[in-house]
Structures are given as structure tokens and as C-alpha cells.
Amino acid sequence: MVAVKKEADEKTELQKLGNSAARRKISRAEREDHVKKLFEAIEADIPGFLKRPADQRLVQICIRYGTEEQQKKIVASIEDDLFSLSKNHFCKHTVVQIIRASRKWKDFVYEKLKDHVPALAQLKDGLAVVSELYNQEKKSSQKEFVSRLFSEELLEKTAERLVGKAYLSTEVSLQIVAEYTKKCRPGIVTLLLNELEEYLRENIAGIVSSREGVRMMHCFLRGCSGAGLSKLFSVFSPSIAQISCTEGGNLFSIFVLLSAAGSDEQHSVVSVFGESLGSVMVDSIGAGVAKYILTGKIVLSPDEKELLAVLEDHGQRERLLQSLKPHFLRLLEAEAKCLSQSLVVRSLSDIFHAFHCDVEAIEDTVSSTEKMRNASTRIFLSKLLKGPSSADVSERILQTASADVGEFCEKESVYLLSTIWNELPRLRGKIAEMVSGVGSSSEGMALLRNKIDSAV
To answer: What is the pTM of this model?
Structure first.
């Protein structure tokens, strides 16, 4: 009886020590002291402590807050059991804590478990360890993580297990299924989709918010037969309103593939977007602007052009333009603050022409002298004045300028008149007459006067 009481008292003291070591508001010296005492108390029997769920937390505290030497001793005492610990419902958390402790220990666990990763990924508890290894990989290496560790046979077995059990709450599991669906026959993809239908309906918003989830849905869209596409469409349709605009680009790409896949429902793509169409498109375009600046490639991807073609086929262009109108200036101003202005406005003008926009789409910009004096806006409009919309844009700018020509010529907006002078010779007489009585001495006005005098 005395021995039992003594053991209970010792456990209580250890728990108190663990609580003290894990406290948030504590000095570094105090934490080191508490962890040292705790480690000394458990060092002799670390595997024994891992057998008792209530005591595992003490080991995890020492891993998280302990010195490298203390971590080394803990890992050394359990390294031969890492595989079995990773499969255990309680012990997996200790392995995860080791992976998180440092890059060194992540690499150590990876080397120990790499041959067991496919087996672990098929188990709910083991998947947590595989997921942590995946998450701790560099972003540039995550894509190769699955292909590096899974043979074709193991990839098939693991993917079908994950789908059958709906173990798809982690990014690595979505990536495994995506890799598998890329390689298997269309009929198999449809069977997988049948297994996953209920899970997808309940979790679609979360799935399309991750890169891996979108990749998986892309693979389903490419690999499904007609019946499978109809099912995918029915899964997505009720969820559009619940998915925020921040995932707009993902939604956009998914529906592009759906609309281009030959589904009977492709004519309904636009109506499913509903009132969020403009926001979804702008989010996708915003991502395209960044891509353009980084790669120098045209903003609109083949997929985006493909969806625009679908919109044209179903007479939805005007609806799209109306949705986009309020967003042009927002894109222009937001992107120009942190990125190269000339590249941003160049990409925006490419969007303008690709969407066959008319001058009404930028009415808010060209109706204000104050807005047209902004450097980014002037570059944007100058690009339009050199493109297929030049006549309409120039007439609208001149209309604004004539309303208060003195103010227009006094400010930087006057440079737009020089651009119109260069690009549209037929309007030179109108410009010369408009500014004939202006007494502005601004640099831009002096440049325009030189052009007028040289033409006389």
C-alpha cells in the first residue's frame, strides 16, 4: 500500500514538473532547469514512459524544449522502434515532435522510415507521421515526395486505401491520390470518384482551398468519363456560395477543366458561378498578373482563354464585363504599389484587349483628371492608346480634358495628350484647338507645345 502511494506521489511530482517546464510565461533559465530535472527523472526508462499515454507528454516536452544532447539521448533510446511507434495511436505524436524539433531530426527520421512510408500512409495513425515529413519538406521538394517514395504498385495500393477509408484530410494524402489518378485508366478514376462522392460533398470547400486538393480535382476532371463528370458537377454546384473569393483562382481552374471536358452540363458553368463570377475572375487574373511579372508570359493561360471561349459561346461576355468593371482600378492600384508599375499596367492592358473590353470598362478611370495624372494609370492608358481600342479611349480622354482643359494641362495628365498626338494624327487639329488658349507652363505642356509648333 505504501509502495503504491509512493509511486502515485512520484507520478504527481513528474506531472507537476512537466507542467512547469511547458508553461508559456517562463524565463529561459527556469525552463532549462525544469526540463533538466524532468529529463533526469525519465531518462532511465524512456521506452517505458512511451507505453503509458499519460506519460508520453513528459517525453514530448523534453523533445520540444530540451537541449540537442537531451534530444539525442531520447532518439537513441527509441530509434529502433520508430516504425512501430509511428503506427501507434498515442506514440505517433512523439515521432511527430521529433520531426518538428529540427531539420537534423527530420532528416534522421526520414532516413529511418523512408522504406516504410507507403505502409504508414495506409494507416490513419501512420499517415500523421508521413504528413509531418511531407510538411517539413521544402516546398520545392514536396511535389517529388510521393514519386520518390512510392513505386507504381505501392502508389495504387495506397491511393485506393486512402480513398476507401476517406483518409484525405492531409495534403500528402491528396497528393498521393492525385499522382495515382494521373497514371490510371479513366474507368478506375470514375470508380474512385464513386467511393469518394460523400466525402467530397462534405469537404469540397476545404479540398479546393489547398494546392494538393486542387491538383487532385484536376486529375479527376481529366480522368473521368461522362457520368463521372456529371457527378463532379453535382458535387461542386451547391458549394459555390460557401467557398470564399480567396479560392477564386482554384475554382476558376476547376471549372475551366469541367467546361472544356465535353460534359453535358458545360453550358451551366457560368450560371453556377452566379453573382460571384466577377470576383472569381478577378482573383484568377490577380494571380495571373503576378505570374506574368515573374515569368514574362502573357497573363491569360490556355485554360483561362478556353473558359472565355465558353463564355462567348453562351452569350455571357457582357455579363462578365459588367462584373469586371469595378475591379480594373483596384487591380491597377493594388498591384502597382509593390510590383514593377510598367509590367503591371502592361499586363492589365493585355487583359483589357483579351476580354474585348470597351471604354465603359474603365469609365471610372478616364472620367477623372485626378486619376489620369497617376503614373501607373497613365502608363496603362498609354498602352491602350497604342492598341485596338485607341480611338474610343482617346475620344473619352479628350472629352474629360475639354471639361476643364486648364487643370488637365497643368497636371501630369497632359502627357496623355502627347500620346494621342503621336498615335492618332487625325485628332491633332482637335488637340491644338483645345489647348490654344492654355497658359500652363508645366513640363508636359511644354512638350505638347513643341509637338504642335513642329507640325505647323
So the answer is: 0.58
